[in-house]
Write a structure and sequence with these properties.
Blueprint (H helix, E strand, L loop, with lengths): L1 H15 L11 E2 L2 E2 L1 E2 L10 H14 L9 H20 L8 E4 L2 H16 L5 E5 L8 H10 L2 E5 L9 H7 L4 E7 L11 H10 L4 E4 L11 H4 L3 E5 L10 E5 L1 H5 L11 E4 L4 E3 L15 H15 L1 H19 L5 E4 L10 E6 L4 H9 L3 E2 L1 E3 L4 H7 L4 E5 L6 H19 L1
Parallel strand pairs: 3-15, 5-6, 5-7, 7-8, 8-9
Antiparallel strand pairs: 1-2, 4-10, 9-10, 11-12, 13-14, 14-17, 16-17
Helix pairs in contact: 2-10, 3-10, 4-5, 11-14, 12-14
The protein binds 4'-deoxy-4'-aminopyridoxal-5'-phosphate (PMP).
The site of 4'-deoxy-4'-aminopyridoxal-5'-phosphate has 14 residues, from helix 4.
């Protein structure tokens, strides 16, 4: 027990010192130390991730799965060991169920094209939620237009949650898929994936989980949760841009047509037709994001050294600190749950009578980087009744003093716009 306590204390101390691992955080913006509060858009990269990519290019660069010379074999081994690391990180039993894509957006497009094409028909329905990112709406709209499918929306409650009882009502016989986000990139709410999956499966409906905002903040257990598809992006988990993951259950992979045609995804090509490689290669046409894979693996290892429990604790601490202050100001409107339970460090608000872009611009003058706009969630903003919001989103390197700086800088916005 003492050893475990020591372990917890160590990771506590480690995370409070992690800022030094991120070279970009040494820079100043407009004469102030950078307070980077836009982690829902993308995260900064630790030196170990940057080094892993550089090391690949300096020492092992080659294409994968093609050559038989030493470099090609090394590159292929590095690539495949990245696949194993991802499988391990998200609790997938078989690394053959991990497909490398360019990001969450491509992962979802892959399913909306390759799976829908073979498994859905005119009159079928797909359930989405009102809190989805555009990348979990528009691909389904494209599929809906092509195949005569209807999209049905699971409404968001006034508290920014999903009501499970309503889902039961929506799951009619014609529903063939439920696609939902694990964490809202605006409201910060966490949706109970395991429970939702159980309900959908009890109606014979497969689920796709958009975990773009979740993988860096909480533990993911695809096999235990039994979800059919899960998507995320490398750049939101402190890894490189240009790489993402689609996890799909083996039986779902077998139900899918190829997504794109090209090198690497075939077994044999003749003039008029071809046969396919087995998954996951069947879905990785062309040269994949080779150098990004060791970068992503290094990012996952970086997170593992703190442990996801410690990362969650830190995220909760920052969220609570932000929510406590936000609710003190009568002219600040919060969008999303005001309580900390089942909520993460994505906190959106508006300063009454001031446009969110004006707020973000004034904050930038104090070195505070955060996002204003609709955050690629126009359906949700329609529901919230506002065109745009200001969003702070926390990462492992943030500390409460940066949130305090944000609130002090808001006073300047008040002074400028509401004098
Ligand atoms: N889903 C959610 C919930 C997101 O927050 C984002 C990125 N903001 C995406 C999907 C799309 O991710 P990417 O642009 O990396 O494909």
């Amino acid at each position: 027990r003492r050893q475990r306590q020591m372990c917890i204390r160590d990771s506590h101390t480690l995370i409070s010192q992690c800022r030094k691992d991120f070279p970009i955080l040494k820079r100043e913006v407009n004469g102030y130390p950078l307070a980077y509060l836009d982690n829902a858009a993308t995260t900064q990269k630790p030196k170990s991730v940057i080094d892993a990519i550089t090391n690949f290019y300096e020492n092992h660069n080659s294409n994968v799965s093609r050559g038989v010379y030493t470099l090609a074999e090394e590159a292929t081994e590095i690539y495949e060991s990245g696949r194993d690391a991802v499988a391990n990180f998200i609790g997938a039993e078989d690394s053959g169920t991990i497909i490398f894509t360019s990001g969450t957006t491509e992962s979802i497009n892959l399913v909306a094209s390759a799976w829908v094409q073979k498994n859905l028909k005119k009159g079928d329905r797909i359930i989405l939620t009102e809190m989805e990112h555009h990348s979990n709406i528009v691909p389904w709209q494209l599929a809906a237009k092509s195949y005569g499918i209807e999209l049905v929306y699971w409404p968001v409650t006034p508290e920014g949650r999903l009501d499970l009882a309503l889902l039961e009502e929506l799951l009619t016989n014609s529903v063939k898929l439920l696609a939902f986000t694990m964490v809202s990139n605006v409201l910060g709410s966490i949706n109970p994936v395991e429970q939702i999956t159980k309900i959908a499966h009890s109606h014979g409906v497969p689920v796709l989980v958009d975990s773009a905002q979740a993988v860096s903040r909480m533990s993911i257990k695809v096999s235990e949760w039994d979800c059919d598809f899960l998507a995320f992006s490398g750049h939101k988990v402190y890894g490189p841009t240009g790489i993402g993951v689609l996890y799909a259950k083996k039986e779902r992979l077998e139900e899918m047509m190829p997504f794109q045609g090209g090198g690497g995804m075939i077994s044999h090509v003749e003039k008029q037709s071809s046969t396919w490689a087995v998954p996951p290669q069947k879905f990785e046409a062309g040269t994949p994001p080779v150098a990004q894979v060791p970068g992503l693996k290094a990012a996952l290892e970086y997170l593992e050294q703190y442990g996801i429990k410690e990362i969650e604790r830190h995220d909760n601490e920052l969220t609570e600190h932000a929510l406590n202050q936000l609710t003190e100001f009568p002219d600040l409107e919060l969008y999303g749950p005001s309580e900390i339970q089942n909520r993460t460090g994505v906190v959106s608000f508006n300063l009454q009578n001031v446009h969110s872009h004006d707020v973000a611009q004034v904050l930038d003058e104090s070195g505070i980087a955060l996002r204003a706009g609709h955050h690629c969630t126009q359906v949700l903003h329609e529901r919230l009744g506002v065109p745009a919001t200001v969003r702070m989103s926390f990462g492992i390197y943030n500390d409460p003093s940066e949130i305090d700086r944000m609130f002090s800088a808001l006073d300047q916005a008040r002074a400028i716009f509401l004098h």
